[in-house]
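Bug: token stream looks shifted between consecutive jobs. Job 1:
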Amino acid sequence: MKVRKAVILAAGMGTRMLPASKVISKEMLPVVDTPAIQVVVEEAVASGIEEVIIVTSPGKTLVLDQFEKAMELEHHLEARGKGDILSMLRKSNHPVKITPAEQAEPLGLGHAVLQSRAAVGAEPFAVMLPDDIFDCPRACLRQLLDAAESNDAPVVALLKVARSEISKYGIVDAKAAGERLFELRGMVEKPAPEKAPSDFAIMGRYVLTPEIFDLLAQGKPGAGGEIQLTDALMALAQRRRIFGYEFEGIRYDLGDRVGFISAQVGFGLKRPELAERLRAYLRSVICS
């Protein structure tokens, strides 16, 4: 299984991060000084992806504009000898082939994936949710791709979550199949902790096969008229083996206020020019 394309779902309303996301889409909110959408695209590039399909809602163009050249700004920086800032800016200029797709109505995660069908074609592909940002020794998506290629099967990212968090996620029923690898036997969307089949939650990285599109197209809308990706994954699991991979690294939920702040701290501490001052500030807050 060779995966060349990744689909990033950026059509959501961003209601969890209002009022910050009222005008600026949540995918453009920064992780330190880099928009979340760019962090996710950079992960795709680091994983060997050749084309990124970005699914947006009508009129939501900022996430696509992020990867266009800003010639006037570049000329301004060049004229003032700000080469370091210019180099950083140019990193966002088409780091990979970017293909737009549109979700005309907010009809669920599965429906958003379905809108990428024409761009993906009949080949395996990755799905990336920009709410989930990862700090891993090896790109999170690359870890999943290696597992998918080794087993010639779809793979989803798994994270063990606290019992109090179980009802927020899709939880899997799984059996061990190797180091960090689990074969999925079922999935339950946001179960009560006492009814959860495990404490493994699906995170926002998936490697899927194109047959998922037919299952999404045939899927019946659930609550709120939405087509859920989890339902299609459960149907796919009836046809072939699906695996979960417990990725190595840290995940930040940018759709959660504490997760968003934690990402700023975590990624800020990785920046040599920021780390010392940030540590000093954190010590002063903790000790005060």
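Job 2, same session, no restart:
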Amino acid sequence: MDVPDTDDAVRAVLRTTDVEQARAFCRRMFYGPLEVKPSGAPDGFTFAGDVVQTGPITIGEISYGVEMCVEMGDLRTAYHVLAPLTGSVHARHRGAAVTADPGRAAVFQPTGDITTRWSADCRLISVKVERLAFERELSTPDVPGGRPRLSTAFGLAGGPGRSWLGLARLLHRELREPDGLSRLPALLHRWRDLAISGLACAVEHPTGDSTPDLPTARRPRTVKRALDAMHAEPGRPFTARELAAISGVGVRVLQESFRRHVGVPPLTYLRRLRLEGVHADLTRAGKGEVSVSEVAHRWGFTHLGRFAGAYRDRYGTTPSETLRDRS
């Protein structure tokens, strides 16, 4: 399949309170196998989508106004990035959980089902890049199976990640203007290629220390190693000493690095990661499919009383109420 290489730019805008209209719009502009549904009552649903597409890249600014579940099957021919401007998105993809917020973008590869939960205040930049166009820009694309190994997220706080997001938003804005880049095909072609190559530079390549380091957030490699381990096995009973060993530093150094670069100690971050995973699983569970204890144990919570208290503190409701409301 050839990557589209037209200089035409297409724009679509929709504002609606109708869930079906929003679903049809997102399918048309992004992917066919896509489902959108409010996590609870649809009261307050106010979809806003402003999407531009030129050649191999599609950029949209999207919001729903209520907490939403958005699910997709295999993307197959594309990579996708969600970069929240406000709020957050909690996602599961290829067996990993990731949280995207204004400091961190989520990355989705062509294979593997995707389940996301958007906070009610989430407004984000949604970017689809055709697979062949993106893989041509990667510096280390050759791995078994023919696909590059990429991390599930990259930072937006600084470095190439921050620069890329600024570039993508500027391209999005210019393509909405009647006298913008769409009237200058040669410049538009170079600009969108820069956006794709900038994304390739921003994405981290988890292939070991022999791969050129492409950090994007202001987080040292020691912190990234601990974060990668927790996201890969959130249910594992990590201790601070184990995480420090994975990171190659002492416990005190890792604790201080997490407070400085993540905002919380490593085990606090791990607890939040697990709570988000439980909440996502309970939110999308069908009637009678799971029990609260099953999901809690799956995510590494062994003391159900402490788990229930931490869940209530974070979400303002109990796990059983979440499961009952969604069933």
